[in-house]
Design a protein that fits this description.
Strand content: 15-25%
Radius of gyration: 19 Å
Number of helices: 9
Helix content: 40-55%
């Protein structure tokens, strides 16, 4: 049963994932939009073959900019919009729940929060990070992606949110070398976000936080506390919290790799980049902005475009 919903998927070289993603959403979506940043593989051809509408837009190293460009430029004709990454897909249970509930929501409900199923090395990671809830469906014209370099959420300008029971899955099929390379790229954006959290710069828009779901606000407060903790010690403590106190060690070898790489290695890499930046610039925001632009070719102020 087709629902009054459009799906926006941001892509770059996602041929390994895009067929699964589209085929899972196609039975219930009226419109499927691919916003591609000039992939060099078969992503675009597969998407078109499956009936998706493909648009191209230059990548500016920021998901918020790309997604908000999509909201502003795509010919969306549905009441609801869903944000979905190419390596994500809907579970059977969520599809049924959407079919049963979406057409019957009260008029004041403008956003839908969904639980996330975290997959790593084809294993469902159940322990260590707790339940993750993300606002991924919203009424068109009411939701927008907040302007942050990392950990960006959809915020609503009116209405209320409801949380559905069943999950969508984040299940990347690439090899571990690809995963570590991707997170190396994420690390500088995470470093920028933590520096902003620490110093309270005006380089990101914080006004949307009041309209995020409760779990996202709690996570943001924890991130502020984390940003104020000592470099390197905080990543080690976070790993111990996840792996020992939250029972991540019960997840076997794949669970160890997930918590070690994502909970310790990645966050230590972020701290290393922050340490490098501060060693060169101190706590001077102007110097940091110039340094990041020169060394990493990232214009921090570009976030204002969204």
């Amino acid at each position: 049963m087709s629902l009054d919903i459009s799906v926006i998927i941001l892509t770059y070289n996602e041929e390994i994932h895009i067929r699964r993603c589209i085929e899972r959403i196609r039975p219930i979506a009226k419109q499927i939009f691919i916003v591609d940043c000039f992939s060099t593989d078969s992503t675009v051809n597969i998407a078109k073959e499956l009936g998706a509408d493909v648009y191209q837009n230059k990548w500016e190293n920021n998901h918020a900019l790309q997604f908000n460009w999509a909201l502003d430029n795509l010919p969306i004709k549905t009441k609801w919009v869903m944000r979905l990454d190419a390596d994500e897909y809907l579970t059977d249970e969520l599809i049924i729940e959407l079919q049963n509930k979406l057409p019957n929501l009260d008029v004041e409900i403008t956003g839908i929060v969904l639980p996330l199923r975290r997959m790593f090395m084809n294993q469902h990671i159940k322990r260590g990070v707790g339940k993750i809830l993300l606002l991924r469906i919203f009424q068109y014209g009411i939701g927008r992606c907040e302007s942050r370099w990392m950990d960006e959420h959809i915020s609503l300008n009116s209405g209320y949110q409801v949380t559905f029971e069943h999950e969508f899955a984040d299940h990347n099929l690439n090899h571990i070398g690809w995963w570590t390379s991707k997170h190396n790229g994420y690390a500088i954006r995470e470093a920028i976000d933590l520096l902003d959290t620490e110093f309270g710069w005006s380089v990101v828009d914080k006004t949307a936080e009041s309209m995020m779901n409760e779990q996202a606000l709690i996570k943001r407060k924890k991130k502020l506390k984390y940003a104020r903790a000592p470099l390197f010690w905080r990543s080690f403590a976070y790993f111990l919290y996840r792996y020992i106190l939250r029972l991540g060690f019960t997840e076997g070898k794949a669970g160890f790799l997930w918590h070690f790489l994502q909970g310790w290695w990645y966050r230590t890499l972020v701290d290393a980049k922050i340490y490098e930046i501060k060693k060169s610039c101190g706590n001077n925001p102007e110097k940091i902005i110039a340094y990041v632009k020169e060394k990493y070719e990232i214009d921090i102020n570009a976030i204002h475009k969204s």
